[in-house]
């Protein structure tokens, strides 16, 4: 068996001084068939360790129902097979630009601000999660013949709270579950963060994108002893819908990496390879000093301007990092071959069905209540909810008020679209006479993953009003967007949006591609039943990555759910990404 320890200001692996050269690669943002290639790319960049979060919501989407735990175990085993050590960050909160920071929506709906505290009910849920997840990590520690060298306690807790008893409880619980390699915390390099998030006796690390000298000096003020480590060196950044694509100069990032290593520190590149926010997993952020301002949803792509791009190709940043890391690691193999890409192809769309005509196949049972139930009340994590309510009559036109939309909605009056409503947008001036039938089709985007707005609900957060009068007796029908059932498509594209459209992509053999929808508005794409994620003409992302394992030789079904506007009667497969 091996051991990994802290000895004064150094890490030691099997007694020898060791520098951790790590890169973040999340198993849940990369298909399992692609793990080996991406892990080999990390080694070829000069890294000796891989780091991953563990998203609670992925593994316990409904209370007490665990799934996909084998993926965490398999990923750590795959990393070991490629000669990489591992750092695991099981949360329970992870941020990661992931929906709700990885906390299940049922949990935050039930407990609100009691999460991430010493609250006994919250900790009982954490205990159940740890019971399932932590033993998988513990049995893969280097002390047990595996490759895990470090486990993180919570995540950037100093950016959120000051409950030292909570952090101590998590620390003790990890140890009780068999963690014997070093534990660590990670926080911003400031008094505020370090005094809120550090745990006595546990290695403190710092997160930053620049200024390593000042960051490590601040860490030394709080921890005079122990190894220096940047747990998150932000070498790129993520994108929000409706805002510009963020990049970082490769030379500048490489210079900062060089300075981190010249200081004698260990490092974890965040991200080494970003991957993709498949399905509805992307989170959201709130702007402002208190992270409670304008809402901004994160894109489907999590390319992150990382040194290894979304499909696993090396970038200029990769080559510059490899040059720096080669001075600190002599064991750097050649790059693995890059998977092929599909040729540019135009795929005709041949069938369609209106969303209303497909509700019996797509939607869950209707619920009627006095006020609009939230997604969480309906047991829905993400997707659509069709709310219906009647305006009494006869009465003359009065102002209709639809407020508290989380996050986007199409309003219909007697079957005709009257407005599109957006969270934070202006409320339309709309007068409606009674009697009338109102329908509000609400779409959720990502839940805020950072700051005090954590744990928000989705749906209509306020009752619909006709002038000063609440409209009671609301029927809600949830539409989960998961794997698609068989749908009653008609030939041609005559279905009016919102509608689903289908086509077939013929391929000789599976290869990577990028899917574009010129002229289309906003919606979702499935490939052979797998939900790739959201698209939106607002940008900056203009293509969706289609990984080769989703395809098969011959015909491949592609389905589009368009909410706003149908474009050209075809989609495009392109060999390169367009991220903005």
TrEMBL record:
Key word Hydrolase present: yes
Top-rank lineage group of the source organism: Bacteria
Key words, A-Z: Glycosidase, Hydrolase
Domain Beta-galactosidase galactose-binding: 498-556
Keyword set includes Ribosomal protein: no
Residue ranges annotated for the Beta-galactosidase 1-like first all-beta domain, each copy included: 372-478
Annotated ranges, domain Glycoside hydrolase 35 catalytic: 11-327
Pfam family of the protein (one): Glyco_hydro_35
Family: Belongs to the glycosyl hydrolase 35 family.
Name the UniProt record assigns to this protein: Beta-galactosidase
Organism, as annotated: Nonomuraea recticatena
UniProt lineage: Bacteria, Bacillati, Actinomycetota, Actinomycetes, Streptosporangiales
């Amino acid at each position: 068996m091996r051991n990994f320890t802290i000895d004064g200001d150094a890490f030691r692996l099997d007694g020898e001084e060791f520098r951790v050269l790590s890169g973040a690669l999340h198993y849940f943002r990369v298909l399992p068939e692609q793990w080996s290639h991406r892990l080999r790319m990390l080694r070829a960049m000069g890294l000796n360790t891989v780091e991953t979060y563990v998203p609670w919501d992925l593994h316990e989407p409904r209370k007490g129902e665990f799934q996909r735990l084998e993926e965490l175990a398999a990923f750590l085993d795959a990393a070991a097979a490629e000669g990489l050590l591992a750092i695991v960050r099981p949360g329970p909160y992870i941020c990661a630009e992931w929906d709700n920071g990885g906390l299940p929506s049922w949990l935050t709906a039930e407990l609100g601000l009691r999460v991430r505290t010493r609250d006994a009910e919250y900790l009982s849920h954490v205990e159940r999660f740890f019971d399932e997840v932590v033993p998988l990590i513990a049995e893969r520690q280097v002390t047990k013949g595996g490759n895990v060298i470090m486990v993180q306690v919570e995540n950037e807790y100093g950016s959120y709270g000051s409950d030292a008893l909570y952090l101590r409880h998590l620390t003790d619980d990890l140890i009780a579950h068999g963690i014997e390699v070093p534990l660590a915390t990670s926080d911003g390099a400031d008094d505020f963060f370090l005094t809120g998030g550090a745990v006595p006796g546990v290695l403190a690390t710092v997160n930053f994108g620049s200024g390593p000298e000042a960051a490590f000096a601040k860490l030394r003020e709080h921890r005079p002893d122990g190894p220096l480590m940047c747990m998150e060196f932000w070498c790129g950044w993520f994108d929000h819908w409706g805002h510009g694509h963020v990049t970082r100069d490769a030379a500048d990032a490489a210079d900062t990496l060089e300075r981190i290593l010249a200081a004698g520190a260990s490092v974890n590149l965040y991200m080494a390879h970003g991957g993709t926010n498949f399905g509805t997993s992307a989170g959201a952020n709130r702007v402002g000093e208190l992270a409670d301002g304008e809402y901004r949803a994160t894109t489907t792509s999590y390319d992150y301007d990382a040194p290894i791009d979304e499909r696993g190709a090396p970038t200029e940043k990769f080559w510059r990092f490899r040059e720096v890391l080669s001075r600190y690691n002599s064991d750097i193999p050649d790059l693995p071959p890059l998977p092929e890409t599909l040729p540019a192809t135009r795929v005709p769309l041949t069938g369609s069905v209106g969303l209303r005509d497909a509700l019996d196949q797509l939607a869950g049972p209707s619920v009627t209540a006095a006020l609009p139930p939230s997604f969480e009340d309906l047991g829905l994590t993400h997707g659509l909810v069709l709310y219906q309510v009647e305006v009494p009559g006869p009465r003359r036109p009065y102002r209709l008020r639809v407020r508290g939309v989380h996050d986007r909605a199409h309003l219909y009056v007697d079957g005709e679209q009257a407005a599109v409503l957006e969270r934070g947008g202006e409320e339309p001036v709309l007068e409606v006479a009674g009697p009338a039938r109102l329908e509000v089709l609400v779409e959720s985007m990502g839940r805020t993953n950072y700051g005090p707005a954590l744990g928000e609900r989705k749906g209509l957060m306020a009752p619909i009003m006709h002038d000063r009068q609440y409209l009671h007796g609301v029927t809600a029908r949830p539409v989960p967007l998961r794997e698609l059932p068989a749908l009653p498509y008609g030939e041609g594209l005559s279905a009016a949006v919102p509608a689903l459209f289908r086509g077939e992509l013929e391929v000789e053999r599976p290869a990577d591609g990028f899917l574009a929808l010129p002229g289309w508005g906003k919606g979702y794409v499935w490939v052979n039943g797998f939900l790739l994620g959201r698209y939106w003409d607002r940008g900056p992302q203009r293509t969706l990555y289609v990984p080769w394992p989703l395809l098969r030789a011959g015909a491949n079904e592609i389905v589009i759910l368009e909410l706003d506007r149908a474009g050209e009667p075809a989609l495009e497969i392109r060999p390169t990404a367009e991220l903005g």
